[in-house]
Design brief:
By secondary structure, this protein is mainly α. It contains eight helices and no strands. The longest helix is centred in the N-terminal third of the chain and has 34 residues.
């Protein structure tokens, strides 16, 4: 019963947090451009938007801590599931990731019903090969950074979240003009579903297959590098 209660709590948290996540990026843009009145290419506006994005990531990291594991990104829980036991892997892939996708889809649907002219979500602006390489590199990088932070400073929430947030923002900016710099298949799925593009080859390869492969590669590489060589036994002097 206790395990079932925890699983239901995680599914509910994943759904709600994913729903909120797709809203947060749009609300930040509305706050910066419509309420504060900064232009789309204003330097001051970009600085305010980046600062708000980092605060936003702190807020969602706090939500993850409060819910004891709730997440809005399939990559995050996939990285944990790959290194965990088989039952945890099945639960993450078969239940938690779908909950995140459904939360994102409903979040985008409500957004489009509430606001007009908010865009179409992430767009692939290069060919499928360059797009896949871009999302793969970005995902591999952020997963590697996250694993390193968990191993080195797991007891410092503020420092871990600060480094993670700045890293995510930097990687997002690096890939924003090419693929949107997403590193979040569920969020992209919400927008793609709303636009009827969720079963296209570009979407499945660039925003799902490549990030999943990159995540598993990062976890595998990190595990290999983390393995310590056994100490050689000292020769006996007696």
């Amino acid at each position: 019963m206790a395990g079932g209660g925890r699983e239901r709590r995680l599914l509910a948290a994943d759904f709600v947090i994913s729903f909120m996540w797709v809203w947060s990026s749009v609300l930040i843009k509305i706050f910066v451009h419509r309420i504060l009145g900064y232009g789309a290419h204003s330097v001051e506006g970009e600085v305010v938007r980046y600062a708000a994005s980092i605060l936003n990531m702190f807020f969602f990291a706090f939500l993850g801590k409060v819910t004891r594991g709730g997440s809005y990104n399939p990559i995050t829980i996939l990285a944990d599931a790959v290194s965990g036991d088989y039952s945890n892997f099945l639960f993450s892939v078969g239940a938690r990731i779908p909950a995140q996708v459904v939360g994102s889809v409903y979040g985008v649907k409500l957004l489009l019903d509430t606001f007009t002219g908010i865009g179409r979500g992430p767009r692939l602006n290069v060919d499928i090969v360059k797009g896949a390489l871009t999302e793969g590199f970005l995902t591999f990088s952020i997963v590697t950074i996250s694993l390193g932070l968990s191993a080195k400073i797991s007891d410092s929430f503020l420092m871990k979240t600060w480094i993670s947030s700045v890293s995510k923002l930097a990687l997002h900016l690096l890939g924003s003009d090419l693929t949107g710099g997403c590193m979040n298949p569920a969020s992209v799925m919400g927008w793609a579903f709303a636009n009827g593009e969720h079963i296209t080859k570009e979407h499945l390869i660039v925003y799902w297959l490549t990030p999943v492969v990159a995540t598993m590669a990062a976890v595998r590489l990190f595990g290999v590098l983390l393995v310590k060589k056994p100490k050689k036994e000292e020769p006996s002097t007696t």
